[in-house]
Amino acid sequence: MGADVTLSSKLLPERSSLEERFADFKTVDGLTLPTHWNLHFTRELPDGSTTISEWDLTEDDIRNNVGLDPGILNVK
Q1: Nearest partner of 16 among 43, 37, 34, judged by Cα
Q2: What's residue 66's pLDDT?
């Protein structure tokens, strides 16, 4: 929002875009899961500026049904 109605009416709309890409699927314990995940986030702000963020994750080791130590959930 602008400082007043006149300024607000001149602002551009805010737009956000989120794109996810999954690749390199592998089967582990009967589950087919991606081992590569790419996330691309774009945000166009009303002042005309654009912010682009990108994350690129690769998993080397996938484990299923791994037991956890119950103590890890204790509130300290």
Answers
A1: 43
A2: 82
Regarding beta strands 31-44 and 15-28, do their DSSP bridges make them parallel or antiparallel, or are they unpaired? antiparallel
Find where tokens 């007043």 sit. 4
**Identity of the residue numbered 10:** K
* Residue 71 exposed, middle or buried by CB count within 10 Å (0-12, 13-18, 19+): exposed
Q: CA of 68: how far to CAs of 24, 28, 40, 49, in Å?
A: 27, 19, 32, 45
Taking a C-beta distance cutoff of 8 angstroms, is the pair 5, 41 a contact? no
Residue 1: the pLDDT is 53
Say how far apart CA 51 and CA 44 lie, in whole Å: 6
Average pLDDT over residues 47-68: 89
**Where in the chain does DSSP place strands (E)?**
15-28, 31-44, 50-58
